[in-house]
Amino acid sequence: MLHDPKVLRGASFFDQALISAANFVTTVVLARHYSSEEFAAYGVSLALAITLQAVQRTTFVLPMTLLGDRVFRRRSAGVAGQHLLILTVVLTVGLAVVAGGAALGVFHVSLEAMLSFLACLVIFFSLDFDRAFQLKNGRPLWPMIGSGLYLSVNLVLASLALWARLPFLAYVGAVAAFGVAKTLVGMLSVTRPNFGHGALLLLRSLRTNFGWSGAGTLASAGFIHAPQLVLASFAPALNVAAYTAVRTPMQPLGLLLRSLDVVDKFQFSKIDVTDLGAQNRQALRTWFIYLAISALAAVAACLAAGPLLGFVLGPKFAGFTTSFRLCAVALALSCSIQPLETLIYRLGRYKGYALCQMTGAGFALVVAPLLVHAWLDVGATTAYMLGWIVAYVATLAFVIWPMMARRSLAGAASAA
Asked: Distance between CA 377 and CA 40 in Å, rounded?
């Protein structure tokens, strides 16, 4: 029953919906009820955390998801130990930075940014791992339960922020504490982490997955988050905050496709690794579905930009419609590329994909300073969108061209 694809997709969708709702509550509360400086600090921290989380996802989580069932069962305790080792290092470094900043007497907003970064990192490092780990252990409902608790915590914090004026640092600190607790409880209910095996898996993952995979993921930050960092270096806090805020109304698209993707990757892992034709067909069929959903969502968002921003974010951000439309296009591209990414990682073609991402990043990095200085948040979102377009086209060529070549060779062989 629990392994029925419909049950898996339903559980994954509600898991993503609850997580998205929790993050939505956090973004809206911070945007509406805290200062622009505090929200800008959160936005920059979120961008940096998501960048590192993307490296963690491609280096550790995605390869784990694509493991065969028997291999995963042998490594389950080691995988748990590996994740806790990574999380411990992240927390230790983060706390050391915060403590050092406090000792040096940094500005208050800088301390807010560092604590926000720590909270965002803890939460986002756990999301994809918890979901994939529980699914591979045959417990698809557990992530949904954890996400429901996460939403409850965020609603309580939002209420305290609205009616008890909860300080910003207390808000993000509580989010970080819950993120750690959720991961530990979920993991210990399945297995006892093996840190020795985890250390070996960590070294192996760094050798085999981190190289080109990590480089490509870091390069993608060039067109995703670098424009925001350029913007934050000189622009008013409201414009920096807007760059983060305009992504919020598109969260439903992300939650829908990520809920489908985690199950699709799980099902993809069951395809025989030697059956390249079946893998290609599955990846292309899924990509067409994701692309159609993303395109429809982007068109609808662009047509309703003004009312949508006003309803979700309030009058403070209602006028940033151009940035929102550009962001909607970029997010549609990033959401729809996931099935192609699955095929690329299954085949181990890390280098080529990394070069595609680097191409988009290089283009965005060249145009971002000029565009941001000319149009502030509109320039930043333009650079973000253009970087994604370049990387997307390069990835399509990288994936589709070998398929066409193999079909031509197969046709020639059959004709002979």
From this structure: 12
Task: Give the Cα separation of 351 and 216 in Å (integer).
Answer: 8
Structure tokens at 16: 């993503």
Q: Which amino acid belongs to residue 44?
A: V
Q: What is the C-alpha separation between 122 and 105, in angstroms, rounded?
A: 25
Length of the chain: 416
Per-residue pLDDT tens over the stretch 241-274: 888 788 878 877 876 787 778 778 878 877 887 8
CA dist., res. 47 & res. 121, Å (int) = 10
Q: How far apart are CA 183 and CA 124, in angstroms?
A: 11
**Exposure of 366 by Cβ count < 10 A (0-12 exposed, 13-18 middle, 19+ buried)?**
middle
pLDDT of 48 higher than 80: no
Give yes or no for a contact between 367 and 386, defined as CB atoms under 8 angstroms apart: yes
CB neighbour list of residue 279: distance below 8 Å, 6 or more residues apart: 268, 271, 343, 346, 347
Rounded to whole angstroms, the Cα distance separating 15 from 143 reads 6
| Structural tokens at position 161 | 């922020």
Give the integer Cα–Cα distance in Å for 78 and 86. 12
Q: Is the pTM of this model over 0.85?
A: no
CB 1 within 8 A of CB 285: no
Quote the CA–CA distance of 349 and 402 in Å, as a whole number.
12
d(CA 36, CA 344): 40
Helix 108-136 to helix 168-188 angle (10° resolution) is 20
CB 299, CB 41: distance < 8 Å: no
Query: Which residue type, as a one-letter code, is found at position 157?
Result: L
